[in-house]
Design brief:
Strands 6, 10, 11, 12, 13, 14, 15, 16 and 17 form a 9-stranded mixed β-sheet that branches. The protein has 2 domains: 12-103, Nucleic acid-binding proteins (OB fold (Dihydrolipoamide Acetyltransferase, E2P), Beta Barrel), CATH 2.40.50.140; 124-431, Bira Bifunctional Protein, Domain 2 (BirA Bifunctional Protein, domain 2). Helices cover 30% and strands 27% of the residues. By secondary structure, the protein is α+β, with helices and mostly antiparallel strands. Bound molecules: 4-amino-1,4-dioxobutan-2-aminium adenosine-5'-monophosphate and magnesium ion (MG).
Length: 444
């Protein structure tokens, strides 16, 4: 046993801890090239890339000979001495001494040349080894870590909502259904309604998990299976909800900038744009948004939802995330608290506005947060359930929250894939989750 085997296992991302030591990289061949007496082996071990240099004389004759049999993605264990190399991403390279081939890979389908998206999607299980995909998924993992950190540090309890549910949360048009013994179940569209029960039990909670929508739209922002994080807070109004969302987004952006700089470099993300994401974020009403859109040549009739061009224009107007609040009730789900006027109180009357708040990201990434203040009156909520053609019996447990100590409360849902797309600058949400599910995409 060599000394380093008895201690910490070597990974490329920790190279600086092993300065000048002899270590073993256990990984895969990324590529290789030779020039006369010197051979170069680019290796990846899952945590990063490192170049190994094979000099005749310095490395074993066996290794020097075997080098030529190595194909892309062959698995190897390569031992050698680390030395500083400022031009490399890890800051180090390896002077290779010996090489063990674990498994020679068959001709690898993904070469450095350009491939079509369809081909890459079919080979998603291999595509995730490529640098850009690897970097984007590392940023995703950091975002999910930062999400947990943010809420845990603020005393929120993680509250896991069921995936199999008996009724809808966000309307019945995008439900996936599945037989559930003798009845029908739906894959959850949002954990919100269960999150509200958690807020009444624990004060403040967050739900985090996969959510499902049978979206027939083929856009760069829609998946049929996506992850959402959904905080819910008792005794919080619309404004407090926006304050929370703002602090939350700031924390995510700062964490990614601090902890994933090398990945953002691989992704060629414009850092100055992310660095400028600091609160306060502008907060405008839907009515104000319509005026801005009109000025920008995108008039929208009152009562219609924004499409992608409207969201992009609002993002451009401010250059940072913008909250849009007080939307038309007619385009919002049944559970929103309503008001007759922007800023005005009261649930009686027309209920023209929903006390919602959506956060629109800059650079065309669209709505990343959707949320608002919930209706707390059982009577009003029953009326809304009926107006939406839903069955009151399905929501009796939800109505109980209004019967037993009802309080004003608010929450929101952040779409994780859209957030990853915005942070990484990738064009399409299919590159922000290991295995995207979309219309016509179920494999691998
Ligand atoms: O605006 P949505 O539909 O809000 C809700 O589901 C609320 N019940 C959340 C809550 O208040 N607890 O969805 C929230 C966010 C959107 O802003 C968007 O970022 C993301 O979820 N999202 C999607 N992401 C990818 N693909 C889809 N099909 C998405 N639909 C929504
Ligand atoms: Mg929404």
């Amino acid at each position: 046993m060599t000394a380093e085997m008895k201690t910490e296992r070597f990974y490329i991302e920790n190279a600086s801890k092993f300065d000048d030591q002899v270590v073993t990289i256990k990984g895969w061949v990324y590529n290789r090239r030779s020039s006369g007496k010197i051979k170069f082996l680019m290796m990846r071990d899952g945590t990063g890339l490192m170049q190994g240099v094979l000099f005749k004389g310095e490395c074993s004759e066996e290794a020097f000979a075997e080098f030529d049999t190595l194909t892309q993605e062959s698995s190897v264990e390569v031992t050698g001495k680390l030395r500083k190399e400022p031009r490399s991403a890890s800051g180090y390279e390896m002077g290779v001494q010996s090489l063990k081939i674990v498994s020679v890979a068959e001709p690898y389908p993904i070469s450095p040349k350009e491939h079509g998206v369809e081909f890459l999607m079919e080979n998603r299980h291999l595509w995730i080894r490529s640098q850009r995909q690897w970097a984007a998924l590392r940023v995703r993992a950091e975002i999910i870590r930062a999400i947990g950190e943010f809420f845990d540090n603020r005393g929120f309890i993680r509250f896991d909502a069921p995936v199999l549910t008996p009724s809808s949360c966000e309307g019945t048009s995008t439900l996936f259904s599945t037989p559930y013994f003798d009845e029908k179940a739906y894959l959850t569209q949002s954990g919100q309604l269960y999150g509200e029960t958690g807020a009444m039990a624990f004060g403040k909670i967050y739900v985090c998990g996969p959510t499902f929508r049978a979206e027939k739209s083929k856009t760069r922002k829609h998946l049929t299976e996506f992850w959402m994080v959904e905080p819910e807070v008792a005794f919080a109004d619309l404004e407090e909800n926006m304050n929370l969302g703002e602090a939350f987004i700031e924390h995510i952006v700062q964490s990614v900038l601090k902890n994933k700089a090398p990945e953002l470099k691989i992704l060629e993300r414009d850092l100055t744009k992310l660095e400028s994401i600091k609160g306060p974020f502008p907060r405008i009403s839907y009515d104000e948004a319509l005026k801005i859109l009109e000025k920008r040549g995108l008039p929208l009739p009152w009562g219609e939802d924004f499409g992608a061009p409207h969201e992009t224009a609002l993002g451009e107007e401010f250059g940072k995330p913008v909250f849009v609040h007080h939307m038309p009730s007619q385009i919002k789900a049944f559970y929103f608290k309503q008001s007759d006027t922007v800023g005005g109180p009261g649930v009686e009357g027309t209920g023209k506005y929903a006390l919602g708040c959506d956060l629109i990201a800059p650079d065309g990434y669209g709505e990343i947060i959707g949320g608002g203040q919930r209706e707390e009156s059982a009577e009003v909520l029953k009326r809304r359930i009926a107006e939406h053609g839903l069955s009151e019996a399905d929501y009796s447990w939800y109505l109980d929250l209004r019967r037993f100590g009802s309080v004003p409360h608010s929450g929101f849902g952040l779409g994780i894939e859209r957030t990853v797309a915005w942070m990484t600058g990738v064009e399409h949400v299919r590159e922000t989750i290991p295995y995207p599910r979309m219309l016509n995409t179920l494999r691998p």
